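F.,

This is the one I mentioned.
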């Protein structure tokens, strides 16, 4: 039986095991290590929900080898777990495309684990774009990118760089030019790296909690707790 074109689509989520001090470390000034870890679990769960809302798309997680067992226990059957070869996000991206894009005609998109509020239509358009371009990129406002898609493995494309690092987009585009790859872009978006991103996301999810329900619920409780702490400071109450 012939496959539909969509059956050759894979969404790869780049993730880590949620351990204190190992995930979303730039949020540390705003949240305790334990709170960051709990928040990351919510982001990852809602990212998987977003991925699984797409029709006829294989969902996978690429992670460090040391994290594979813990993540498999955490997410159950929501996605296939692929242990990357090498260390760092660049190695994870290279491993993900080497594993999935080796299949003839398969369109593969690597997506970060902290943008569950992204409209599903953006991911759909990214897959469609790969029918006419070699590469599709979702830029962030801080010089990185939140997704990158291709329909072939390019081993030198991500050498020593990660999707969230500053100037990562510029570096990726330079390598794409060297490889003579045609590139298209999705809409610019933001991921959750620093306290300002956390506040922005909380505002957005208050208006539309269904976009990322577990994250929305966590942020609501966080805002209540933060508000109570500020009230205690103003009134001189609370524990010493």
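My design for it:
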């Amino acid at each position: 039986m012939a496959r539909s074109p969509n059956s050759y689509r894979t969404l790869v989520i780049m993730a880590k095991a949620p351990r204190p001090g190992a995930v979303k470390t730039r949020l540390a000034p705003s949240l305790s290590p334990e709170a960051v870890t709990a928040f990351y679990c919510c982001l990852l769960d809602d990212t998987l929900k977003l991925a699984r809302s797409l029709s006829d798309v294989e969902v996978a997680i690429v992670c460090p080898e040391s994290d594979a067992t813990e993540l498999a226990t955490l997410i159950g059957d929501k996605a296939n777990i692929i242990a990357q070869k090498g260390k760092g996000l660049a190695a994870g991206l290279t491993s993900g495309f080497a594993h999935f894009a080796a299949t003839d005609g398969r369109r593969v998109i690597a997506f970060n684990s902290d943008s569950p509020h992204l409209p599903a239509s953006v991911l759909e358009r990214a897959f469609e774009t790969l029918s006419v371009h070699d590469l599709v990129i979702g830029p962030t406002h801080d010089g990185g990118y939140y997704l990158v898609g291709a329909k072939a493995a390019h081993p030198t494309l991500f050498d020593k760089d990660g999707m969230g690092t500053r100037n990562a987009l510029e570096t990726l585009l330079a390598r794409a030019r060297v490889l003579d790859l045609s590139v298209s872009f999705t809409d610019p978006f933001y991921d959750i790296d620093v306290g300002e991103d956390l506040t922005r996301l909380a505002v957005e999810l208050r208006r539309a909690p269904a976009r990322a329900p577990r994250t929305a619920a966590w942020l609501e409780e966080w805002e209540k707790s933060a508000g109570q702490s500020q009230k205690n400071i103003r009134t001189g109450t609370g524990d010493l």
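The domain at 5-191 is CATH 3.90.550.10 (Spore Coat Polysaccharide Biosynthesis Protein SpsA; Chain A).

Talk soon.
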